[in-house]
What we know:
The chain is an alpha/beta fold. The protein has a single domain, classed as Alpha/Beta hydrolase fold, catalytic domain (Rossmann fold), CATH 3.40.50.1820. The protein has twelve helices and ten strands. Strands 1, 2, 3, 4, 5, 6, 7, 8, 9 and 10 form a ten-stranded mixed beta sheet that branches. Helix 7 packs across helix 8 (222-233).
Amino acid sequence: xxxxxxxxxxxxxxxxxxxxxxxxxxxxxxxxxxxxxxxxxxxxxxxxxxxxxxxxxxxxxxxxxxxxxxxxxxxxxxxxxxxxxxxxxxxxxxxxxxxxxxxxxxxxxxxxxxxxxxxxxxxxxxxxxxxxxxxxxxxxxxxxxxxxxxxxxxxxxxxxxxxxxxxxxxxxxxxxxxxxxxxxxxxxxxxxxxxxxxxxxxxxxxxxxxxxxxxxxxxxxxxxxxxxxxxxxxxxxxxxxxxxxxxxxxxxxxxxxxxxxxxxxxxxxxxxxxxxxxxxxxxxxxxxxxxxxxxxxxxxxxxxxxxxxxxxxxxxxxxxxxxxxxxxxxxxxxxxxxxxxxxxxxxxxxxxxxxxxxxxxxxxxxxxxxxxxxxxxxxxxxxxxx
Length: 386
């Protein structure tokens, strides 16, 4: 069944390829043939299109009020192998104050450690747990530390609650307390969560125990959509990882996958995730001036990784894979390999030779230990330590 679905997905990909926006052709129709043209013209165009039509635009980037306050004293943990730091990332605006509780486990080592930052969209008590009483594979601190990586996590709800209240709570209420000033391209909740991940990077830049040049941002499902948007905007992240992100993440909108979520459905169930303009493409995907391969391409020439699960038809696995294939020509502008392999892989057969990685894990919609192991393998290979 897996291989049959894979073949059907590739046929659908071929059918829709001619209708997809060309990532290497400007709005005016001019071909982009160099990395310089990509950076000066096409990349800014694509980023602006996603802000206007999909995620919205932020009213603020790094606020002048940003500050970092220890939540408690540092503590040696993980059988003496790591130092735990807990930090409150605080900020204020016209509507009051906000804060993000960050937990970091940093290996005790002679040199600064590379790191993974998890945008946690599940219970922080069960999946982050600073005391490591609840050890979840969703955030496998012990395994990350054993491989020499710092493990950082924050809960997305700290930045903005995952509920539709008219954008009055969370960071929206801090910086835009009057929802009446919102426009069709004002930022949604996914953009707010991505903004939070960038504030985590602000703290990392102050932490000498972490190598800020080798940091990955990771998200699962709605967190995977968030990670891609964060990586597209924040070039300080060396590696962006999308796990089972589906619609609004890595999955192509124009690919016909009947079991997969589409734009109309996602905006109906989660009206707060995207900007209001995105709603008009619910039954008219072909009118959208971007598709998700262009989101993956915004990460070039840095590292990108997309993962799917064999039982997760809702996320549209062939559409996630095909985005990686179609984004890869942008890496080629830099003389780099993007995704190496254009055939949808068998389960548990990761593709990791190029700057874009992909795997299809056997199993359901989840962020599993297998996924983390492959992400660390990819980082070891593509983000080597001095």
